[in-house]
Amino acid sequence: MNPNAKISDEQFAEFLNKVRALAEGPFEEMQKEVEQTNVFPQRFFDLARENDLYRFALPSEYGGWDLNELEILKVQEEFSRGPGGMRMHLHYSADLNWRILNEYGTPEVKAELMNKFQDKSVFTCFALTEKTGGTGADVHSTAIRQEDGSYLLNGEKWLISHTDCSQYAYVIAVTDPNDDKDSRLSAFLVPMDAPGFELVEMPHMMGCRGAGHAGLKFTNVRLDPKYLLGREGQGMEVAIHSLSISRVHIAASNLGMCQRMLEMSIARANDRITFGKPIATRQAIKMKIADMAAATHTLRCLVYDFARDFDVDPHNEYVDEKAAICKLNSIQAVKTCSDEMLEIFGGDGYFEDSPYGPTERLYRDCRALWLEEGAPTVQRITIARECQRLKAQLGYQD
Ligand SMILES: Cc1cc2nc3c(=O)[nH]c(=O)nc-3n(C[C@H](O)[C@H](O)[C@H](O)COP(=O)(O)OP(=O)(O)OC[C@H]3O[C@@H](n4cnc5c(N)ncnc54)[C@H](O)[C@@H]3O)c2cc1C
């Protein structure tokens, strides 16, 4: 399938099967405890490492397999069938974690860190959202350049994932407070053990438990200029491009969950007898299955279409619009599938430990994806902006 890949098609197919078995087997078993503790056990990280889950998405120069984006998204689809918090961790690991540094890092920092993602000896978190600001460019944290060339970082971030297992944070901050455009922002890689860097505790979440959420607080954190990502003033571009790809990973996550909910719902509908017949034979139930299948297949086509364009040119002109379309549709798809699943399962679906799969946990977990990488309103704003810019010409890369 991919002539550049360092593993054969057969090995890749086996890998997909292995990832599904892990997600629905040992990971799901561990999650029962994580639901209470909100912390992943060390065994989760070890299993992920032993099974190449930190490695598969990397370029071969950093220990990876040179998979293309379509293949990476297929792996994402498989592990997303498992617990939501683990999905969030592995999604991030396969994507923003290494991609931002790879694309925008200085040669010095890349030489120091890029080889350390493959076995998770380095992990990062991504910090854009602020309690006091709005989605995207409405950022108030500042990183002001000093006379000696260093930057002084002050401010806060909120709702940040993976803070309990990271050594560095990607931080978007204002470097030019007098500029009223997006170019007032810059992106930095910030060592989390720097003096003045603190974590602020957050409450437990509805689902996706264990993904290490916290707020960040910066008080005069001094940054070496080698930690600037891209150019000064390029921060919004770094964030938007990185988030676009991540939005499609969100869509692939929803795809994995939709597919599993569909399979579980068909199995349950075939087994559940009411008034002498399986409910699967009732037209009302068939309509639900049809809507779930249609939403899932449409989503798969959108995700694969994005990946094919991206593999031709990662900076193609359709990236932002298609990514937002993927994410928006994926929310609708997972909304349809989770609602219909609950109705098909009836009262049993509202309880933990269904023999068909974790109906109640899937229902809670998938709702985080409404918000990750931007709420539906923000996706619509992006689609409208890009659609107007491209004069409605949403095409394909050759
Ligand atoms: C599980 C989880 C993990 C997350 N992880 C991270 C992370 O690792 N890093 C990170 O930086 N952030 C993270 N976030 C934050 C996430 O990106 C934001 O929650 C999301 O972008 C929405 O922003 P907000 O919460 O500030 O909502 P608000 O900005 O308060 O928005 C509330 C509602 O108003 C709408 N709205 C807001 N402004 C406008 C406007 N100008 N025009 C129209 N509508 C508007 C929004 O679309 C939304 O529907 C995470 C969130 C969750 C739930």
Walkthrough of the structure:
- The structure is a single chain.
- By secondary structure, the protein is an alpha+beta fold.
- The chain has 3 domains: 108 residues, Butyryl-Coa Dehydrogenase, subunit A, domain 1; 108 residues, Butyryl-CoA Dehydrogenase, subunit A, domain 2 (Beta Barrel), CATH 2.40.110; 154 residues, Butyryl-CoA Dehydrogenase, subunit A, domain 3 (Up-down Bundle).
- It contains 12 helices and 10 strands.
- A 4-stranded mixed beta sheet has the order 1-4-5-8. A 4-stranded antiparallel beta sheet has the order 2-3-7-6, with no helix packed on it.
- The chain starts with 8 loop residues before the first helix and ends in a 9-residue tail after the last helix.
- The relative contact order is 0.11.
- The chain binds flavin-adenine dinucleotide (FAD).
- Flavin-adenine dinucleotide (FAD) binds next to β1, β3 and α12.
Can you give keywords for this protein?
Butyryl-CoA Dehydrogenase, subunit A, domain 3; AcylCo_DH-like_C; FAD; 4-stranded mixed beta sheet; alpha+beta; 398 residues; 4-stranded antiparallel beta sheet; Butyryl-Coa Dehydrogenase, subunit A, domain 1; binds flavin-adenine dinucleotide; 12 helices
